[in-house]
Write a structure and sequence with these properties.
Helix 1 (24-36) packs across helix 9 (286-301) and helix 8 (254-272) runs parallel beside helix 9 (286-301). The chain is globular and about 50 Å long. The termini are far apart. By secondary structure, it is α/β, with parallel strands linked by helices. The chain has helices at 24-36, 51-54, 60-68, 84-101, 132-141, 158-163, 210-228, 254-272, 286-301, 317-332; strands at residues 4-6, 72-75, 78-80, 108-110, 147-151, 170-177, 199-204, 232-237, 276-280. Helix content is 38%, strand content 13%. The strands form 2 sheets. The protein has a 7-stranded parallel beta sheet with strand order 1-4-9-8-5-6-7, sandwiched between helices. The structure holds zinc ion (ZN). Zinc ion (ZN) binds next to loops.
Length: 339
């Protein structure tokens, strides 16, 4: 079966400025790889996210400002151009399309730009304007269903965490490089109010690779998802935890990232009976991004794809720093860890 890939040519029109790492070339490299593999049969989102859908996670005043503000920088590395709001609304619309088309036996892969997981309720940051995955999650909870978000990006999904900080019906799980941008995501950040315990952060030391990520998946993420029993699992799929990425010091191989997605796919299909929706976030090495997305699309299509960067590297190692990280996570989430 063809993989369910959501993409719109409009995602290629968004340009921060020439030379910026969050470039259209990221998606072009992924598209070329999927074409090469015979897996490029994209579904195109027909419409942008509506203001009503966006207001479920963003402040109305912020949305009005994005629509009306003159072009210029919103933060040090995130620019507003004349069409940025329209492009970002199409990316959020793509997240909604992936959600509505995904089925338990057919996960969806949204190749979206601009990315979204740093976008806060009332502010753009870190190349993100609208929080695509949060918009999709809010559409699930609006139906009275529980949703889980697994953020595998190199960077902490601070915007997503903030949006659902007090929500008991949205489980937010994040692996990210400790100390990297934006500096949030400590294991002691667990949510508040009714949402206390529904945020679970796994900050990983530089050098963490396939073995460490697999331990985090098997010992923390999968059991926590099983206990929470969400109706849908959404994934913030960055490829920047890859060892080749220029913005980070984590060390996943392509096979490592594909393996994490495989674990989530199996859990969703076999135990949770929940659709899996993968939404692209960051990832700045063009070849590594294309390699990972090729492998993931192959996995979803039930085809074996040869990966270029599949040698596992793991300086932190399962036995060393992982034990310390796992202890810290367990301190704040006693039921979560079943090592
Ligand atoms: Zn990132």
């Amino acid at each position: 079966m063809d993989p369910l890939v959501v993409f719109d040519p409009i995602y290629l029109q968004h340009v921060q400025h020439p030379g910026h790492p969050e470039s259209p070339q990221r998606l072009e490299a992924m598209r070329s790889r999927l074409e090469e593999l015979g897996l490029w049969v994209p579904t195109t989102p027909s419409e942008p996210a509506s203001l009503q859908q966006l207001e479920m996670v963003h402040d109305r005043r912020y949305l009005s400002a994005l629509a009306a503000r003159p072009a210029g920088p919103l933060d040090g590395d995130t620019y507003l151009h004349a069409h940025t709001f329209a492009h970002a609304r199409m990316a959020a619309g793509g997240a909604l399309r992936a959600l509505s088309d995904a089925r338990v036996d057919r996960p969806a892969l949204g190749l979206l730009r601009p990315p979204g997981h740093h976008a806060r309720p009332g502010a753009a940051m870190g190349f993100c304007y609208l929080n695509n995955i949060a918009v999709a999650a809010a559409a699930v909870t609006a139906q009275g269903r529980r949703v889980a978000i697994v953020d595998l990006d190199l960077h902490h999904g601070n915007g997503t965490q903030e949006i659902f900080w007090e929500r008991p019906d949205v489980l937010f799980l994040s692996t990210h490089e400790e100390g990297n941008y934006p500096g949030t995501g400590g294991s002691d950040e667990v949510g508040a109010g009714d949402g206390q315990g529904a945020t679970l952060n796994i900050p990983l030391p530089a050098g963490s690779g396939d073995g460490t990520f697999a331990a985090a998946m098997d010992q923390v993420i999968l059991p926590t998802l099983t206990d929470f029993a969400p109706a849908v699992v959404l994934v913030s799929l960055g490829t920047d935890a890859h060892g080749r990425d220029p913005l980070g010091r984590l060390a996943l191989s392509s096979a490592g990232l594909v393996g994490l997605v495989r674990s989530l796919h199996e859990l969703c299909a076999q135990r949770l009976e929940a659709p899996l929706v993968l939404l692209l976030e960051g990832g700045y090495d063009l070849q590594a991004g294309a390699d990972c997305i090729g492998g993931i699309a192959g996995l979803l299509a039930g085809e074996r794809v040869q990966l270029r960067f599949s040698t596992p590297t793991d300086r932190a190692c399962v036995g060393g720093d992982w034990v310390r990280t796992a202890r810290q996570v367990a301190e704040h989430h006693r039921p979560a860890l079943r090592a």
